[in-house]
Amino acid sequence: VVAAARAAGAEPGAGGPVVTLSRSLIVPFLQFSPRREARERAWRAWGARGANGNDFDNRAIAAEILALRAERALLLGYASFADYKLEPEMAKTPAAVRDLLERVWAPAKAQAEADAVVLSAMMAADGVNGPLEPWDWRYYSETRRQAEHDLDEAALKPYFSLDAMIAAAFDCAKRLFGLEFRALDVALYHPDARAWEVTRDGAHLAVFIGDYFARGSKRSGAWCSAFRRQRKLGGEVRPVVVNVCNFAKGEPTLLSFDDARTLFHEFGHALHQMLSDVTYGFISGTSVARDFVELPSQLFEHWLEVPQVLERHARHWQSGAPMPADMRQRLLAAATYDQGFATVEFVASALVDLAFHEGVAPADPMVMQAEVLAQLGIPRAIGMRHATPHFAHVFSSDGYACGYYSYMWSEVMDADAFAAFIEAGDAFDPTVAARLERCILSAGGSDEAEALYRAFRGRMPGVEALLKGR
């Protein structure tokens, strides 16, 4: 955290070490800072993004966007924007989305409440009076994780250097799909970005660009985009794909396990783009139903947890020694740790998003947000993963508007899809990998999402796969 704060402080105008509101820096600060008043100050600043009564206040803009979406839906003959937006998706209806989210909410809330009791007791043992607050959860949860799983994030990070995790993602792509990556010495839009040519059997397949570091001119989050999409109409055109992240830059850059998961997630999107093999550009790659698009990305995350991948690539950045076997086992055993918290903050955000787009648009989205959270009975010490004024998924475009649920919808499938490899007895089974590429990764939006998944797996999964995974 200290090194990352120093690196952030090197940005022009920063004036020295600083804890920015980038997730890759603020979350570790909330996990590790023993200074409760500093955690509170940081958490409140993080939560208040876009709601500070200045020129960058987004609340009125959010209300206007919701009103315009509702108006558009009515003009097109739909009862609500939710009905309009969900019609072409796998879910089809707001009721189906709500059913999934509410089925997950109850067990997640129960787990989070049980965890809150434990964390509150830890806080009281520290001599801190009063209830557990949002700025306390990550700190005491990390302390509990270290105690129960003997895992220290600071001890883990040296085994997850950025370069090693890039190599791990490339290696998995090679073993699954035969892809090769050759570094390119080309001028790009920023010195931090780097590029690789992607080939298979010597034939050009794509150009992949990685832009991994946080900087002041970059918006927060992580995403995958295509500067050029694959198509065959008018001649073969291969894609130029970019993964953008916001990792705290260091010498070297060391990732948390969650950061490494983000890298694998975005690379899963990139594979969807790079392996695309369709005629028309408008249905290539990730041009699929919004609640299907996260399947390839979330599925690829599973390979980060494959023991042989960790054995090969999770190596100490200085000594090159592999992660000790007992540490690796503890890491994997803790993979579902604190899922009550993670699921509650996600589902709360998804249900607020859904409520915004059902029926009449709210005059004041912040009032509706508060009403939805009150109805849910969200635990005091957990907030939305993305509060309305900075909920970029919902308000930066229509892409994820009434679509934040899609991560969870896709998660139902990704757990089941990876099980196909487990059932084959090999996480890199070539037959299953070939079927995955043929039925899903190369197909883009050439067929209905459900038809593509059924072609790969032979059936659709139930929500039980998701609950088991969490």
How would you characterize this protein structure?
The structure is a single chain. The chain has 470 residues and is α+β, with helices and mostly antiparallel strands. It has three domains: 2-41, no CATH class; 59-151 and 337-404, Neurolysin, domain 3, CATH 1.10.1370.10; 160-319, Neurolysin, domain 3 (Orthogonal Bundle), CATH 1.10.1370. The protein has 20 helices and five strands. It has helices at 2-9, 23-32, 36-47, 59-75, 81-86, 94-125, 134-149, 153-156, 162-177, 257-274, 290-301, 307-313, 325-333, 339-357, 365-376, 392-395, 406-424, 430-441, 449-457, 464-469; strands spanning 180-184, 194-200, 203-213, 223-228, 240-247. The protein has a five-stranded mixed beta sheet. It is globular. The chain starts with a helix and ends with a helix. The mean pLDDT is 94.
Secondary structure tally, helices: 20
Rg computed from alpha carbons, rounded to a whole number of angstroms: 22 Å
> Total number of β-strand segments?
5
- The CATH topology of the largest domain is Neurolysin, domain 3
Point out poorly predicted stretches: none
What is the average of the pLDDT values?
Answer: 94
Q: What is the helix/strand order?
A: HHHHHHHHHEEEEEHHHHHHHHHHH
% residues in beta strands = 5-15%
Q: Could you give a short description of this structure?
A:
With 470 residues, the protein is α+β, with helices and mostly antiparallel strands.
How are the SSEs ordered, and which strands pair?
Blueprint: H1 2-9, H2 23-32, H3 36-47, H4 59-75, H5 81-86, H6 94-125, H7 134-149, H8 153-156, H9 162-177, E1 180-184, E2 194-200, E3 203-213, E4 223-228, E5 240-247, H10 257-274, H11 290-301, H12 307-313, H13 325-333, H14 339-357, H15 365-376, H16 392-395, H17 406-424, H18 430-441, H19 449-457, H20 464-469
